[in-house]
Write a structure and sequence with these properties.
The protein has about 525 residues and is an alpha+beta fold. It is built from 15 helices and 23 strands. A hairpin with a 2-residue loop joins strand 19 and strand 20. It binds flavin-adenine dinucleotide (FAD). Flavin-adenine dinucleotide binds next to helix 1, strand 2, strand 13 and helix 9.
């Protein structure tokens, strides 16, 4: 019987996508047979942004056996409990999209339904007062809930901020130590097999020719294999997400890092603020139809809290997705597979999810088309799910202070999002299907934060006694507050974690992510 197993996997590109894939393959294709080679070009470099993440990355680290404290130390990392949105619902407003949960469901009724009924009876605090992560973030507190943690601390979910270049370096050490071969060089040619158009080899500038059975295109926006060689095609979503440029600049940051990302809406886009241990990451994402690059740079620099530490870097992108993430024997990952802007820090997660799905559907040399189709279907769902969630932030706003916001408010939206909004507006219902990434908490936080207010609540709520529910809600709110009061400050926790201090754990804590389905808790 002939051996159909994949022998050589060639990864083109050594940014976050390339090294995440290399590290995962080193760990999960460690069968003594399959070899992984990664080609990268220092001269071309990486995009150098991508510093905020979502909770599933905890599981990625754990699956690789990475100690979380080592990871935080090596990447100048901090912890992230969610995103604070400033001026999004309307000028002067703010709301918090936390990781984790809002409150506890009672007798099978969703917490947010109970909260909404109570809000009809009296003036209530913002729903984030019922989130462990949000309350801790508001007080600048953090602790990693160990596996033994009890409620309410067990409801605290987190992710990370890190320095993108240090993260790639960290994973490179890991992958090389596990047997991945790194080749320095620039790919200048891609050879296709005459019989079926599969990629046969790539050639480097110095004449070396690298053959492979499976190629992973991690070459960034240029899509060297998936697009330039295979002409797979791109679905452009700019009509829904008009931002197409970004300017990034690091700055000084005195004081303790906040345990959350901040996103502040601007007149033609928005600005990110990502606190690391040694600096602040900042960027302005904007629509070039509405503001010039020079004006956008001025907006960014005028709104820095500290001093810039480098020249601002200008980036251009087209929001959308590659029509097929996997074509022939090429699987694209990272920016080569598509890009939805970083408003909810989802791109690194899409890489992680792509890796998990590829490992679950790993082909052999016969490349059964059903595996490719299934992979592409799942990746399409993921991209569209992220797309809809991001569009919601732009569309559901009361802002009308610029042409940009007027356009976002008036634009037509995908049917899938329109249905979700209608369901919520009617009776506050949120349903999560299949591999949907965002859980009820996420949708509810953004709906309420951006004025998608339900007319009624679910009828089942009225089966629960009003006074009893009111008392339970008050008890929960107080429990989150009390618990936050007992936690160390975020800065103290980091100091202990990277200083090897006791009592902070380091194995990654609770796993809020299902590696097989790719969904958040
Ligand atoms: C403005 C902006 C902000 C972002 N913020 C976030 C965020 O907060 N959170 C998040 O999750 N994601 C974010 N992202 C996305 C994130 O940056 C990417 O998903 C991530 O960095 C992966 O990039 P990559 O590895 O695909 O590409 P790149 O970093 O561009 O790497 C491409 C690699 O390919 C190599 N290469 C290219 N051509 C050749 C060639 N001919 N020969 C050899 N090697 C070659 C390069 O040298 C490099 O190593 C952001 C993106 C942008 C544009």
């Amino acid at each position: 019987m002939s051996d159909h197993r994949i022998r050589n996997v060639v990864i083109v590109g050594g940014g976050t996508a390339g090294w995440m894939a290399a590290a995962a393959f080193a760990r999960f294709l460690n069968n003594g047979y399959t070899k992984t080679i990664l080609i990268e070009s220092e001269e071309i470099g990486t995009i150098g942004v991508g510093e905020a993440t979502i909770p599933p990355l905890i599981t990625f680290n754990r699956m690789l056996g990475i100690n979380e404290n080592d990871f935080i130390k090596a990447t100048q990392g901090t912890f992230k409990l969610g995103i604070e949105f400033v001026d999004w619902g309307g000028p002067g407003e703010r709301y918090f999209h936390p990781f984790g949960f809002h409150g506890h469901d009672l007798e099978g009724v969703h917490f947010h339904q109970l909260y909404l009924r109570e809000r009809k009876r009296r003036v209530m605090q913002d729903i984030s007062a019922w989130s462990m992560s949000a309350v801790a973030a508001q007080h600048g507190k953090f602790a990693r809930p160990g596996a033994e943690a009890r409620a309410p601390l067990s409801q605290l979910l987190y992710a990370f901020h890190f320095d993108a270049s240090l993260y790639a370096r960290f994973l490179r050490h890991y992958a090389e130590a596990q047997g991945v071969t790194r080749l320095e060089g620039k790919v200048v040619d891609v050879a296709l097999r005459s019989e079926d158009g599969f990629v046969e080899s790539v050639s480097l500038e110095d004449g070396r020719k690298i053959e492979g059975d499976l190629f992973i295109d991690c070459s960034g926006f240029r899509g060297l294999l998936i697009e330039q060689a295979l002409k797979t095609g791109y679905e452009d979503w700019t009509h829904w997400l008009p931002c197409d440029r970004a300017i990034a600049v690091p700055s000084t940051y005195p004081g303790q890092p906040d345990p959350f990302t901040r996103s502040t809406a601007r007149s033609c886009g928005w600005q990110w603020r990502i606190p690391l241990q040694h600096r602040m990451g900042n960027g302005h994402v904007y629509s070039s139809d509405h503001i010039s690059d020079d004006e956008a740079e001025k907006v960014l620099l005028d709104n820095l809290e500290g001093e810039p530490l480098a020249q601002p870097r200008r980036l251009t992108f087209t929001t959308g997705r590659r029509r097929e993430a996997w074509s022939r024997n090429v699987v694209s990952m990272g920016l080569s597979s598509g890009f939805v802007e970083p408003l909810e820090s989802t791109s690194i997660h899409v890489i992680q999810s792509g890796i998990a799905k590829l490992i679950a559907l790993f082909p052999d040399k016969r490349f059964n088309p059903v595996e490719r189709r299934e992979y592409n279907r799942q990746m399409q769902n993921l991209f569209e799910d992220v797309r809809d969630f991001i569009i919601l932030h732009y569309h559901a706003t009361t802002r009308d202070d610029s042409e940009f916001w007027k356009r976002c408010r008036a634009m037509s939206i995908p049917d899938s999002l329109a249905e979700k909004m209608e369901l919520f507006r009617a009776k506050a219902r949120v349903f999560r299907e299949g591999f949907d990434l965002f859980a009820t908490t996420s949708w509810v936080a953004v709906f309420l934060g951006q004025h998608v207010v339900p007319e009624e609540y679910e009828p089942a709520v009225d089966a629960l006694d009003e006074d009893r529910v009111a008392a339970a809600l008050e008890q929960m709110r107080q429990a989150y507050l009390d618990c936050a009061g007992t936690l160390p400050s975020h800065g103290e926790f980091i100091a202990r974690a990277i200083g090897g201090g006791g009592g902070v754990g380091g194995d990654g804590g609770a796993a809020p992510f299902n590696f097989a389905t790719g969904s958040m808790a």
